[in-house]
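Technical note accompanying the year-one report. For the benefit of new consortium partners, we illustrate the data format agreed upon in the data management plan: each record pairs a sequence with a structure-token string. No post-processing was applied to the example shown here.
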Amino acid sequence: MSQKAAVRYVCLCALIFLTSQSAPCNDNDTLFPTPEILKGNVAFWKKIYSEVSLKEGLIHDRDYPMVIFEKVSGDGSSAKIKSLREKIAASLRTIATRPQSEWTEYEKSIYDLYKQHADTTVIAGAADRVRFQQGQTERFRQGLERSGLYLDTIKAIFKKYGIPERLAYLPHVESSFNTEAYSKVGAAGLWQFMRGTGKLYGMRIDYIIDERRDPIISTIAAAKYLSSSYQELKSWPLAITSYNHGVYGMKRAVAQTGSRDLGYIIQNYSSRSFKFASSNFYGCFLAASELAHNYKSYFPQVKLYPPVKYTDFTLSHYIHPDILCRYFNISQKTFSELNPAIRPAVFKQHQKLPKGFVIHLPVEFTSESVYAMLGNVPDSLKTLEPERPQYYRVNRGDNLYAISSRLGVSLNELLAENNISKKSIIREGQILRIPGKTTGGPQVAMASADKNIKTTKPTASPTQSTSTESSETEAIIEIAQAEAKSIMPPEEKVESKDIAVVIPQPPVTKTDSKKKVSPQKIIKETPPEAVEEISDSLKAVAMTPAIVNNEPSPAQRPFLSSDFDVSLYNLDVVLLSSGNSAELVVSIDETIGHYADWLKVPTWRIRKLNDMRNSDIRINSKIRIPIDRPDALETFAAARLEYHMAIEEDFYTQYMVIDVKPMTIKKGQTLWHLCNEADNPMPLWLFKKYNKHLDLNKLMPGTTVWIPVIGENVSGIYNPGLGKADSQFLSVPLRDKSQKIKRIP
């Protein structure tokens, strides 16, 4: 697909890279009408947001939500609620098939509900529409409180982009104004951008920084998205619904129904991807925005947090955040709360913040005070060049002392870099980050910071989008395109084949000479060096061999674990004999766009190297990539690793697997249906994690698969190793003095 066609496919055209054209900003019922068919939906969601607790929920008709059968305590997974749903479904079948004289009093009351809130003719088929909706009152109340931090700034940004003010309340539906919100499918932040779409709108998203979590930068991106969506769809109800269903999806709905009336579309549009969430999204927005605008009437006790104000400073060096906290005399908690775009891994792994990144500091800081405090930071603690990320995969028989000795790094630094304490135990396959060195260039004093400092309430002016070459833009478009298609059922994908759904086999390590090198063997053959002084409490940890992984047999229930799993990702990269290209096996959630982005080359070069045109790549297929620079392979491997690590880490900060249940595949079910159509949707990598014994290329009806049951991680902290030891961590670029190529063992 050409770049132009790709942009048209995901409806993310050049408007998003330019100042958006103004859309009408009169905020009235003309812009946001309530179709007759949605009045019941709006009333239902107002009830869910303002009257029903998180500890309870409503059992209702999916298509006629004000037909509420029961208000019950508990959550949708409880046996009590499942039993009630079955009882109600049975009663509905009785009403639909038997004469009224045979109905019970309970069944007569259900019939009366339909007379009041719908039509009795729709009872036929209602047994399949019985649904449970958890209450959201406490969450909505918290969202109201948090909204005070950002609402004024969001409204100012939207005014600049010509977005109706009422849309400032949309985060109540998306994230409850929680900057740390993360969905099961990978959307993040206040506005719930997917990774590819976020990059397309100019946000930096990598292992260190995720600007989807920055409330101001992400709001500017949301304003651009909403403005361009309105230009495409010519209707605010459709543009709002596109936030859930995608612009392409809504254009498809308009084309199929011949109407831009959302009410008509909801009644007549047939699509497996236009499900409950999409058809209710606009109704949720109308309900949430009415409650939020009139919150004093619905939540009289709520007090909004005061608007947040920052002192902004642009870093002129690479520096650890704990160094900044120390010299600014602020806690890490305060610093991280002010800077939600900094990923938790930065603090956990003592990584450096990048030069050019804008940090938010307490508003009482002045230009003079910031400059004075930074002037006290020694040159040895700040650099002009980035550290080159390097990792080591723990092998059977390894211990920390042997690893540090072999790699020529300080044992104490290795322990500190990986947050290893006296209670820690390393596991076979675990990833260790190697204490890094800069890529080059001297450490020098920090340049004058006067011009880098400004004290403001967060500005409503759009920040300058990161300057990108056309090749990088092209790569990002392909990533966003793949994300857009991934939410569509296979039968609805157009212009190219399905996004990869096949899972890679366990990795086989190769080098440029096609020979396997065992890190375990290398370490054991290395002569011991002088033992470094470490505390007595850490000596036992340093000398303890890595735990050996024992996988359950295919018939056994898989272990519950949040460990990063090496068997899911084949990240070997083989440098070919020519020296100017390498070969890899496509892994989960990867596209040509990702490879081009990590290599900083245009996508056409990769396609040309592989004699490809516009077709998608598939997992487990082999792809060649160009290698133009001496460090390209190592940089590529690290970026690829960190991409997969970030996805899992972000997921486990919000969710945890609380159970696994067997399920038998039925005729007609595909991998997409298993991951997207269940009551418990999940990312593909998580499904594979609990079905490692299966070849997902050959799933057949009658095959038993394990379905992970996802629960909320109330701590909000990623804790590798939850559950039984199931460590199969990802292999990573190995720093090995005997090899020039940094590869994946």
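Partners are asked to follow this layout when depositing records. Confidence is low (pLDDT under 50) at residues 1-26, 440-469, 494-531, 721-745.
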